[in-house]
Specification:
Layout: E1 5-7, E2 10-12, E3 20-21, H1 22-29, H2 37-41, H3 44-57, E4 62-65, E5 72-75, H4 77-87, H5 89-104, H6 114-151, E6 156-157, H7 158-164, H8 169-178, E7 182-185, E8 188-191, H9 193-197, E9 201-209, E10 215-223, H10 225-235
Antiparallel strand pairs: 1-2, 3-5, 4-5, 6-10, 7-8, 9-10
Helix pairs in contact: 4-5, 6-10, 7-8
Length: 238
Amino acid sequence: MNASLSILGTKIRQDAEGRFCLNDCHKASGGENKNRPSIWVDNSQTKALIAEIQAEAGIPALTSIKGGNASGTYACKELVYAYAMWISPAFHLTVIRAFDALVTGQIAAPALSEQEIVAQALQITVRQIEELKAENAILAPKAEVAEKIADSDGLYTLNLSAKAAQMPLSQFTRAAHANGFIFKQNGKWNAYSDKVKAGYCYVKFHPYRDRDGDERFSPQVFFTPKGITRLVKISGQH
């Protein structure tokens, strides 16, 4: 391996045989006294593993260098894995990823500390709160309009009804027509009698004279607050 191994920002030294410094790995893990390489090396299972690896490889799997800048305990990759597993599952996974990154030429993503994980969680929570605030800011005016409509005793023209329901006029009339509130009669909107009886709509007839001078009546549809609220609810617009 020409590139150097780095674990959690700590460069791991290698000896002439390519073995890795366990002291550097210990430093990368946090440097706790209980996790010193010397303690791990004295473990009976570790000694058995070292013997097994050396029997297959034919070279020392573990060696120590004393004095100078290269001082420390050096081990083969398999022993580095075993040492990392002995320290903790989390550090073991970090070491595996570091070696994978070394092989593929990629940079291993450093593991996050507990404080960093909490900080990221707080950032996500704050972002979610801001998104909810923005959503509520959109929904609040609609809810306020609905409450005002429901509490009103007046009549609304189609244009005012559409505004009260916060819809374009064309959308409101399409919804009212599709849900059986109004229908077209001689080019004019009229209301179905069952909706008038239910108190959803009201129709006023305005007299006018046609070209022959005969008196005619033109319907004008009004929606009641209850009718607007009902239409909005069943059409699923809000």
